[in-house]
């Protein structure tokens, strides 16, 4: 819990991919700081369990971020359940490793549909309810791969660059409505998504950690802290920005020894 109790008091947040990992950490952090939280995911069992854990400040909605109808239902449910909608965290995403020459169109399109189209649909879905609420904050979770490339991640990198660009367009369009839009760029974070992308194998982060200024990979809670800042009124003059939490990954270049 932060030093400023209730930093999100009175706010209602919809967080995608919130059943586990970064999304779950954000849901817990937001609820602890006074927000009402709609936990949205396709993982119904874990999502409902988290909502039960958090109690009255939380509810769960099934949401496939690539489906327009799911978005409409999740947003309507959030407003019906909590009375308004002030914050959207577009966190849901998938990671897919493969060399460019061996990346199938189906795999590429799957990543783009979930990561990129999902973020687009999310932003579009909250324009009206946030406008009605008098403003709000959209936090689009991109990646350090939205700032620079990485081998074997052509689809993921494309989707995260797109999120970065869409964030700026949305910020320019929605500023007059009092809606702020920023992108959040995590580095290597110890989450289940990384293990899943590695085929369920145990991931050895030590090699990655040695290349980082802080000499370690990040924790989901550390990303949740940045999302909290962007969701709160503490970031009231921040929009169209890129907020990096990567342990120093983007402070160097490929020639680092």
UniProtKB/TrEMBL annotation:
<dbReference type="InterPro" id="IPR036291">
    <property type="entry name" value="NAD(P)-bd_dom_sf"/>
</dbReference>
<dbReference type="Pfam" id="PF13561">
    <property type="entry name" value="adh_short_C2"/>
</dbReference>
<feature type="domain" description="Ketoreductase">
    <location>
        <begin position="11"/>
        <end position="191"/>
    </location>
</feature>
<dbReference type="InterPro" id="IPR002347">
    <property type="entry name" value="SDR_fam"/>
</dbReference>
<dbReference type="GO" id="GO:0047936">
    <property type="term" value="F:glucose 1-dehydrogenase [NAD(P)+] activity"/>
</dbReference>
<keyword id="KW-0753">Steroid metabolism</keyword>
<keyword id="KW-0443">Lipid metabolism</keyword>
<dbReference type="InterPro" id="IPR020904">
    <property type="entry name" value="Sc_DH/Rdtase_CS"/>
</dbReference>
<dbReference type="InterPro" id="IPR057326">
    <property type="entry name" value="KR_dom"/>
</dbReference>
<keyword id="KW-0520">NAD</keyword>
<protein>
    <submittedName>
        <fullName>Glucose 1-dehydrogenase</fullName>
        <ecNumber>1.1.1.47</ecNumber>
    </submittedName>
</protein>
<comment type="similarity">
    <text>Belongs to the short-chain dehydrogenases/reductases (SDR) family.</text>
</comment>
<keyword id="KW-0560">Oxidoreductase</keyword>
């Amino acid at each position: 819990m932060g030093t400023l109790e209730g930093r999100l008091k009175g706010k209602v947040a919809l967080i995608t991919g919130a059943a586990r990992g970064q999304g779950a950490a954000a849901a817990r952090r937001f609820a602890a700081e006074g927000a009402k939280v709609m936990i949205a995911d396709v993982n119904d069992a874990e999502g409902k369990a988290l909502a039960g854990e958090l109690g009255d400040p939380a509810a769960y909605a099934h949401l496939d971020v690539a489906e327009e109808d799911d978005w409409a239902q999740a947003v309507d449910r959030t407003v019906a359940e909590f009375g308004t909608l002030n914050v959207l965290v577009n966190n849901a995403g998938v990671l897919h490793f493969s060399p460019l020459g061996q990346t199938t169109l189906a795999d590429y399109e799957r990543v783009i549909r979930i990561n990129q189209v999902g973020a687009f649909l999310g932003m579009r879905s909250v324009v009206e309810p946030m406008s009605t609420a008098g403003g709000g904050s959209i936090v689009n979770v991109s990646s350090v791969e939205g700032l620079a490339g990485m081998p074997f991640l052509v689809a993921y990198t494309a989707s995260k660059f797109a999120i970065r660009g869409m964030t700026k367009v949305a910020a320019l369009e929605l500023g007059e409505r009092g809606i702020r839009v920023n992108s959040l760029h995590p580095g290597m974070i110890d989450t289940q998504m990384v293990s899943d992308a590695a085929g369920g194998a145990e991931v050895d982060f030590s090699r990655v950690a040695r290349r980082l200024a802080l000499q370690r990979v990040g924790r989901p809670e550390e990303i949740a802290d940045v999302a909290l800042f962007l969701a709160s009124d503490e970031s009231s003059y921040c929009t169209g920005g890129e907020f990096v939490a990567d342990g120093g990954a983007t402070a160097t270049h490929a020639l680092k020894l």
